[in-house]
Amino acid sequence: MSRVPIFTGRHVEQAVSPGQAVDAVRKAFIAHARGEWTMPPKVYVTNYPAGDFRAMPALGAGHALLKWVTSFPGNPLQGLPTVAGVVLLSDAENGQLRAVLDAAAVTALRTGAAAVLAAETLGRADATTAAVIGTGVNGRAAARTFLARGREVLLWDVNEARARHVAAELHTGVASSLEEALAADLLVTVTPGHQVLLADGALQPGQHVSLMGADGPGKAEAAGPELARAHLFCDDWEQASHGGELAHAVEAGLVAREDVTALGDVLAGTAAGRGDATEITAFDSTGLAIQDLAIALAAVESAGDLFELPLFDL
After folding, report:
1. Residue 283 belongs to what domain range?
2. Is 42 tagged catalytic?
3. Which of 20, 29, 163, 285 is 20 to 30 Å from 121 by CA-CA measure?
4. Mean per-residue pLDDT, 256-264
5. What is the value of pTM for the model shown?
6. DSSP letter string over the chain?
């Protein structure tokens, strides 16, 4: 019989800071780009329009991971979280379970990290303003990560009260209008993806946008022609072209495989990032199991020095 630690959401946040999450996710992107970490395709079990379930496996750094996680956008109206589930971390040498982690907290950390990492990598060197549109759990994580990296950020949400609540919690500002938020040099969108936020001509030369909300079939935050104007990047082409922000533009023939660069390749130094200061850059994030693996490993590695965890017998 073995004793397996359980990381609640609070434990995950205590174990991994936003800065540590950025570093962990960067290393995961590079390891995946080099073929050192592997990741079978994400599996969707859909129950639309209510929501979906996702099974996400990964292998790397001597460990295997499976995340079983949900996305039910209507849940907050019922007092329930949009994202819930578990992350199982196992030893890849003997198959033994090493830890169970709260999936929502892991997802929020790696989503915020990926959004800001892409903005730092692909944004203009002289970018001064940043904004996050959508202040749910993952939007809050993105804003928290910007702040942890030393960059001020404005928030905007269709629910003004929620935006002000999160801004007060994080000690940051609220954009005076959607237009002010959309004008930021570094823009992160974390909406449900049911309505197009960036219509034709919305993005201006030199802007960067991390599109984090359209992480499943039928979702979109940007119009297809607007995507086609940008220098495009993604976390994983297969996921992005079939179930991410790029999917509708690919289906319409506006974007092809050769138009899109993997962020991991840029971080690994095998592909170019932003071309010049006038380019519009856009990053399509669908969420990768390798990112979850990176956060889970960081949590397990640091938790022993910080606090005692609840255990269960297996």
Report:
1. 113-287
2. no
3. 163
4. 97
5. 0.94
6. --EEEEE-HHHHHHHS-HHHHHHHHHHHHHHHHTTSSB-PPPEEEEETTTEEEEEEEEEETTEEEEEEEEE-TTGGGGT--S--EEEEEEETTT--EEEEEEHHHHHHHHHHHHHHHHHHHHS-TT---EEEE--SHHHHHHHHHHHHTT---EEE-SSHHHHHHHHHHHT-EE-SSHHHHHT-SEEEE-S-SSS-SB-TT-S-TT-EEEE-S--STT--SB-HHHHHHSEEEES-HHHHHHHSTTHHHHHTTS--GGGEEEHHHHHTTSS----STT--EEEE----HHHHHHHHHHHHHHHTTT----EEE-
